[in-house]
Amino acid sequence: MAANALIMTTSLSGYWQLVQRLGGSPDSVLRQCHLDPQAVHNLDGVISHKAELNAIEKASQALHCPDFGLRLAEGQDIYILGPVAAVALTASSVGDAIDKIIDRLHWFSPTANLRVRREVKPGQSLLLYYSDPSLPRYRTTLEHAIGVLRNIMRSLAGSSFRPRAVYFSFESPLPTQDYVDFFQAPVLFNQEQNALLIDSKVLDKPLNPPSQRLHLLLRRYAREMLADNALHLGKQIELLIENLLLTGNCNLETISSQLGYLPRTLQRELCADGLSFESILESTRRRLADTYLREKDMPLIEVASLLGYSEQSTFSRACKRWYGYSPLQRRKQLTNQSR
């Protein structure tokens, strides 16, 4: 499974701009890693996790930028987790949010893992990151992962968050001070794990009201999508739906608000293009259903949850409406097509 495992393209958020800023060609580097440059530029869909890791390492080498992983992480935060972030932001506390991320991180990538070890020292806990051992283990990509983890904690606990210490499993050619400047904490190398040591009390810190956090996330998401003026209204709605399906808040009113429309006005705009909110919701669910059903190890109840259905039976009825088959029969059909 690991050799063909996928990761959301949002993991490379900012990659295009960073490579250009450093004087490189994103198209060239990405193609060398067998990635579609347009998909990465648009942060569209999923890509090979192995290719994503190779793209970070390749850019570091080609641009003679040994701290490329940290630079990429600098501009990323919980937003790159997409719908997993939307679920995490409904939590009541930082620890609860981390638990929600851990439980659903396989939706972002099945080969990325996060774990919490509480009270490894009195009043201190560890946040550990690890990936499937069959994947490449580059220094740059591990730095990127721990850098993003630090920023996710800032998204949850506040911008003043500082780890007590940072652990890396490798030895680095970079000056230690570069890491200290980035993490604002002591950094230790040649450790048994890649992790952040944090104050345990941070995990008990309450979050702001869920509606406020989710609203801010969606406003940012909509704003970044709208920065691409060529993005069709229907596509904007489709991308928002993808991130809202898991939250139980995927409805016309919420999406209209994020795009700056009244619900009736948005429906009228869509109607002029021969579309409707309901048709986009249905087609998005159908497209995602095939993506998830191709993952033969993903339980059908989990597929139903990812598509925003509270009951597996509701998903089964939708599947029969779309394809004339049950979800299990559709999975077998997709498996046969890929052979």
Can you walk me through this structure?
The protein has 339 residues and is of the alpha+beta class. The protein folds into 2 domains: 2-204, H-NOX domain; 276-339, Arc Repressor Mutant, subunit A (Orthogonal Bundle), CATH 1.10.10. It is 54% helix and 10% strand. It has 17 helices and 7 strands. The chain has helices at residues 15-21, 26-32, 37-42, 49-62, 68-74, 83-88, 94-108, 139-157, 176-183, 210-226, 233-244, 252-259, 263-272, 277-293, 300-306, 312-323, 327-337; strands at 6-8, 46-48, 112-121, 124-131, 165-167, 187-188, 194-199. It has a 5-stranded mixed sheet. A two-stranded antiparallel ribbon has the order 1-2. Strand 3 and strand 4 (124-131) form a beta hairpin. Helix 15 (300-306) packs across helix 16 (312-323). The chain starts with 5 loop residues before the first strand and ends with a helix. The mean pLDDT is 89. Keywords: DNA-binding, Transcription, Transcription regulation. It comes from Microbulbifer aggregans. Pfam families: Arabinose_bd, HTH_18. This is HTH-type transcriptional regulator VirS. Residues 235-333 form the HTH araC/xylS-type domain.
Topology:
Blueprint: E1 6-8, H1 15-21, H2 26-32, H3 37-42, E2 46-48, H4 49-62, H5 68-74, H6 83-88, H7 94-108, E3 112-121, E4 124-131, H8 139-157, E5 165-167, H9 176-183, E6 187-188, E7 194-199, H10 210-226, H11 233-244, H12 252-259, H13 263-272, H14 277-293, H15 300-306, H16 312-323, H17 327-337
